[in-house]
Each structure stands twice: as C-alpha cells, then as structure tokens.
C-alpha cells in the first residue's frame, strides 16, 4: 500500500504535469470507486482545472477550479499512470481523467477510491488523521508517545497517532532508531524516545528522494518511482546482512503485522 513517500512522489509529479490543465473528459468504469452517481461526478469534474495537488497522510487531494475536491486513497493495489492512449498500461482502469491527449489512469481501485467532496466534507473526512511527520515538533511527539503503552510497530502505522507511515517505513524508522519494532512505547528510555523522533524525518525524506518503494512506473520511461525498493535497510530483506552491523535480518509476525529488523542492533 502506498505510504507518505509514494504519495509525495505522485504529488510532486502531478503538480508539475497536470496543474492548470482543463479536464476534457472523464471515464468511470467502476462506479464503486466514486461516491456519487456517474453523471453527477462527470458534471462536476469535466471542464474544471486542477489548481493544485496536495497530500494529507496517504491521501492525495486534487483541488478543482469549481471549488470541489477529489480525495484519492489508492489503498492496497492502487496505482496511477500518466500517459496517452498509445502507451497506456494493459490494465483495467477504474477511472480515467483526460487532459486533451494526456490521460491520468487510476488502476487497481478495488479497495481505493476517488471521492468528490466539498470543503466541509473533505475536512470531516480527514479530521481524525494525526499530525504530518514533517510538521510534527519534538515536544508534541514526546507528549503523544507518553500516553501510549502498546508496541511501536502498530503505533507508528496508526494514522491517528502520526500520518502517512505504514508497514515499510515503520520498519525503516525503528531500524534507524536502533529499537526493536515491538518494544512497548512506555518502556522506552528518554534517549530512545528522542532517537525515534530523530529517525522519522530522515527515513521519510530519503524515501521521497528515491521515489518511494512502489515499483510501478508513473509514466513511460520512469526510472525514479519505486527505486527506494532497492535501497531499503531492512524491509523485505529477511536473511540478508544488516547494513549497519553485519547481523542477519529477520522477519517477525505480531498480530496482523509483519516486521523486518536486525536482532543484533535493534534490541
């Protein structure tokens, strides 16, 4: 599932390529992927411009010149591809937004969605999401962490605690902080709590730099999107050597969460 770095990569790319371009056509192939009737959705979206693309947690927000908003959550399996009918992937597209010959394809939206919302509806939809990692200050983080007693891995992926982090980057953050992913939050020392905070931004910033870990290209010839997949430290590297201490990376399953870590340097 795309996390903050993947959605940030998409956001930057889309702002550069479709901002202020009029939406000339809208195709809905799966009505369950939207939240209105098909014709209502088309009437509000077709003819509008996307004035800006924002990110909130794992969502993208398309601001429309009509005053409405499109809220995207790709969920598990969701992808986007920007191109033309000539280089479009041979995949089922649930939604297609056209900007002249240019097409933004939404693929794999079986669980994901693209909802048409007013400003008040958008605010309500996002109201329970926690603070953004790049905006979160140390004091607030430590205060929020102090009230928690559970294991770190489930806590870091809890969107009401902190926004945009999922399975991949929670593992990478715990590795950077040298903390076992299933340590209890209330058992961490002050130093470990500060190390955890100090690890969040660098891990996410590095992932954005490498285009995230989702390796489906965003456009023809895309070499950046997904290259973090080749640069993870522990995620999906079971049995490989730890890049820090040379120990062997292990996988551990806890409730519904899988996690990868180095037992030698993440005590």
Automatic annotation (TrEMBL):
Keywords: DNA damage, DNA repair, DNA-binding, Glycosidase, Hydrolase, Lyase, Metal-binding, Multifunctional enzyme, Zinc, Zinc-finger. Its EC number is 3.2.2.23, 4.2.99.18. It catalyses: Hydrolysis of DNA containing ring-opened 7-methylguanine residues, releasing 2,6-diamino-4-hydroxy-5-(N-methyl)formamidopyrimidine. Its cofactor is Zn(2+). The keyword Manganese does not apply. SUPFAM superfamilies: Glucocorticoid receptor-like (DNA-binding domain), N-terminal domain of MutM-like DNA repair proteins, S13-like H2TH domain. It comes from the Bacteria. The keyword Lyase applies. Residues 233-267 form the FPG-type domain. Residues 2-100 form the Formamidopyrimidine-DNA glycosylase catalytic domain. InterPro entries: FPG_cat, FPG_N, H2TH_FPG, Ribosomal_uS13-like_H2TH, Znf_DNA_glyclase/AP_lyase, Znf_FPG/IleRS. It holds the Pfam family Fapy_DNA_glyco. Belongs to the FPG family. This is Formamidopyrimidine-DNA glycosylase.
